[in-house]
Amino acid sequence: MTVPGHVLLVDDEPAFQRLGGAWLRGLGHTVTVAGSAEEAVARFRDGRPDLVLLDLSMPPRMDPLAGIELIAAFLPAPVVVLTGHAGHDMALRATAAGAWDFIAKPIEPDMLGFVVDRALRKAGLEREVRTLREQAAADDLGLVGRSDAIERLRAMVRRLGPSTVSVLVLGPTGTGKELVARALHSCSARAAGPFVPIHCGALPASLLESELFGHLKGSFTGAHRDQPGLIETAHRGTLLLDEVGEMPAAMQVKLLRFLQEGTFLPVGARAARRADVRVVAATHRDLEAMVADGSFREDLFYRLKGMVLRTPSLAERPGDIPLLAGLFLRRAMHGGAFAPDAVGWLAARPWPGNVRELRATVEAAAALAHPGREPVDAELLRFVSGETNEMAPSPRDAGGSLSQAIAELESRMLADALAAAGGNQSEAARTLGVSRVGLIKKMSRLGLR
Ligand SMILES: Nc1ncnc2c1ncn2[C@@H]1O[C@H](COP(=O)(O)OP(=O)(O)OP(=O)(O)O)[C@@H](O)[C@H]1O
Ligand SMILES: [Mg+2]
Fold it and tell me: Which of 73, 117, 119, 322 lies at a C-alpha separation of 20 to 30 Å from 305?
């Protein structure tokens, strides 16, 4: 049974528009047509097709791969490309650029119906996953914790999420600033749109500008084609300016213009563009002090901090540590459990790297533990956190079955007894309480002679 959907056919050939359109309508789909990727984006942004069929053998008014990226940026629908017979290489590149599937022309009606049906089913599943995720996020918004500080934070996120207020998230490293930004996005009306994070300190000013605002072909050496920036990618969604305190001064002023007027200028462009983007900024630095010493623009600071949300350090909410650790352990290790001394050890640590460090420690311990056999104990945690360099010998080291563990213990006792007896087997046998022959048999079984 086919899943009927709204298919947008992007092809400049009137004959195929008619024929392909008729085939698909015959299968129960709604079909609209556009002559180019630009037209498709301009006309159908609001129509939200379920699937886009894009012909890559059209005369290239624009780079076909840029067409895919353009559609991917503005129409949240899967793209299936149609290629000419020599287009295998192009089809692979198209898939790398984000296309879901491809069909080579000339196209058989059955093949077209099959590929369209498969893509629509997959899109349906993806939608379902997204809805389920949204429902799950509606519970705790992904922000785990029962402490007052986290309850307050969640309540603020729920209230601010649907608004357009700009939010500045401040807090020490690893405390969930990015998670808060995602939560704001997921409880806003933009939840179905993109969430785009950018690390403002990772790039020098010139690259950051082109990354954020995009550039036109030829605007600098190596700019082989027009490239939309992350602001455009985040259209109808949320842009997280992460580590905004590290944004170079030259960029701060351009960002301010976008925040105030909603317009920006791609590198090499003359005409300003618009994008509908909600901006959330985050930093672990003291922005107020940076404003005072002149390294961060005061006007930008006030524009960003419509509301300030603070993420608490783990030290401020030690009661949440067992809850978080338990969650990370279960995610990393099916059937994993903590020994009682592990919980005490976890709760007493200072965790300067906060939740990120806690998570990494628990995941490392899970990787070394044996699922279902022994709980993760304080000794293992001390070992993975670097507090001790060695784990005391335990059956865990034997790496497997009970018999391996016994063999390990036996050979250690035998070796010790022999060493104590200066290599005298009769004496070693006596200390071990076995006959000399029994000792020799054991030694050869364990590979000790
Ligand atoms: N309240 C929380 N519940 C569940 N997971 C959390 C929570 N807070 C943080 N985490 C987890 O801790 C890790 C770090 O979180 P995140 O990247 O949001 O921190 P950050 O404050 O942005 O850190 P940095 O300042 O270093 O960028 C992530 O894996 C995140 O999922
Ligand atoms: Mg972060």
Answer: 73
Instruction: Name the closest-CA residue to atom 4, ligand 1.
Output: 144
State which amino acid sits at residue 445.
R
Alpha carbons 242 and 167: distance in angstroms, whole number:
12
Residues at CB less than 6 angstroms from ligand 1: 143-145, 171, 173-179, 284, 311, 355-356, 359
Q: How far does the centroid of ligand 2 lie from the alpha carbon of residue 197, in Å?
A: 9
Q: What's the pLDDT at 396?
A: 47
Q: What are phi and psi of 223, to 5 degrees?
A: -85, 85
Quick: pLDDT tens for 96-132: 878 888 888 788 889 899 999 999 998 888 878 767 7
- CA 378, 381, 384: angle at the middle one, nearest 5? 155
Choose among 275, 188, 271, 262: nearest CA to 234. Answer: 275
Token output for 320: 């949440």
The number of beta carbons lying within 10 Å of the beta carbon of residue 194 is: 18
Pocket test for ligand 1, best of 285, 354, 355 (most atoms within 8 A of CB): 355
Six-digit token pair at 197?
């994070």
Delineate the domains of the chain, giving CATH numbers in brackets: 6-130 (3.40.50.2300), 141-310 (3.40.50.300), 315-392 (1.10.8.60), 402-445 (1.10.10)
Q: Over the chain, what is the mean pLDDT?
A: 86
What local confidence, expressed as pLDDT, does residue 7 receive?
A: 92
| DSSP-assigned beta bridge partners for residue 215 | 227, 267
CA of 92 to the centre of ligand 2 (A): 34
Region 181-186 average pLDDT: 95
Site to probe by mutation for ligand 1, drawn from 150, 168, 173, 179 as the one with most ligand atoms within 8 Å of Cβ, is 179
Output the CA 284–ligand 1 centroid distance in Å: 12
Separation CA 69–CA 231 (nearest Å): 14
Residue 397 has pLDDT above 70, yes or no: no
CA of 193 to the centre of ligand 2 (A): 21
5 Cα to the center of ligand 1, angstroms: 39
User: Which amino acid residue places its CA nearest to atom 9 of ligand 1?
Assistant: 176
